[in-house]
Specification:
By secondary structure, the chain is of the alpha/beta class. The protein has a single domain (34-80, 109-255), classed as Ribosomal Protein S5, domain 2 (2-Layer Sandwich). 38% of the residues lie in helices and 21% in strands. The chain has 8 helices and 12 strands. The protein has helices spanning 7-27, 83-90, 100-103, 110-136, 158-169, 202-211, 224-229, 243-255, and strands spanning 32-42, 46-47, 50-51, 53-56, 66-74, 96-99, 144-147, 183-186, 189-190, 196-197, 216-220, 236-240. The protein has a 6-stranded mixed beta sheet with strand order 6-1-5-8-11-12. A two-stranded antiparallel ribbon has the order 2-3. It is globular, with a radius of gyration of 23 Å.
């Protein structure tokens, strides 16, 4: 049994390994990535001096609003994240901690990941074109659409690409802008038959959108809860499940007629 005089020293000695373990954990790399709001781009406008959407084979119309695709930025697959960064990010609304494997496939090199994301973006653009032309009753054998957006990968801009094509070709169907002249942002994958899919990172994407002037955000309905969790002041959420539904919601918002869904 330890005496009262020796017990504090014994406790201090026993604490040394604990302190060492904590210090090791703080400075050791962890299998996480830290994400933050990324860039946005107006698909109705230019990117690096070139139009994002170019259409031939059908008359196009001038647009006045914006349709902003949104992104997140994350620490790279070969970037070490320590416990201090993880803890700091937990207490910030403009950061999110995610398992590294959820963002980057395990074992892939940076080059392989970049190539994969580029393929996903190209496939998303092709599918977005088919979905938009199908919505308008047009054939991709007559109408050619080219989409160009530098330094962005993945499929999450599909919905916005489709809406951009529709706005340039048809607008709201009666001569007005699909956007109603607003700065509208959003995210969501798209299938050829117009179904909108979830993407992840929506709470960070709403922040990027508000930073760049958007006041309306189209969000996959399944991710309404995530989008509401850190919703910036002045941002209106519109849940979507299909391309047709997204168009109907924007037309209702523009004309002030009919119900506009909300999260």
């Amino acid at each position: 049994m330890l005496s009262r005089l020796t017990r504090p020293r014994a406790v201090a000695v026993c604490a040394l390994p604990v302190v060492a373990l904590i210090a090791t954990a703080v400075f050791s790399p962890l299998p996480f990535a830290v994400a933050q709001p990324g860039m946005t781009a107006d698909v109705l406008g230019d990117n690096r001096g070139e139009p994002v959407i170019t259409i031939s084979g059908a008359p196009t119309r001038d647009t006045t609003g914006q349709l902003r695709m949104t992104t997140i930025e994350a620490t790279g697959p070969d970037t070490d994240v320590d416990l201090g960064e993880v803890v700091d990010s937990w207490f910030r609304t403009d950061r999110a901690v995610m398992p590294r494997d959820a963002i980057y496939p395990s074992g892939d090199s940076v080059k392989e990941i970049e190539e994969y994301n580029a393929e996903q973006m190209k496939e998303s653009q092709d599918v977005a074109t088919r979905a938009a032309l199908s919505h308008l009753g047009l054939s991709d054998r007559e109408v050619k659409v080219t989409l160009e957006l530098a330094d962005v990968g993945g499929p999450s801009a599909g919905l916005l690409f489709s809406l951009g094509i529709i706005d340039k070709l048809d607008g709201d169907g009666s001569g007005g802008d699909l956007t109603g002249g607003r700065n509208i942002a959003g995210t969501g994958t798209i299938t050829a038959d117009g179904k909108v899919g979830a993407v992840g990172g929506v709470a960070l994407k709403t922040q990027a959108a508000r930073r760049d002037g958007a006041t309306v955000f189209l969000v996959p309905k399944a991710e309404c809860g995530d989008a509401r969790s850190e919703l910036p002041e002045g941002m209106r959420l519109i849940p979507v499940t299909t391309l047709d539904g997204a168009v109907d919601s924007l037309v209702a918002l523009e004309k002030g007629t009919g119900a506009v869904p909300h999260c």
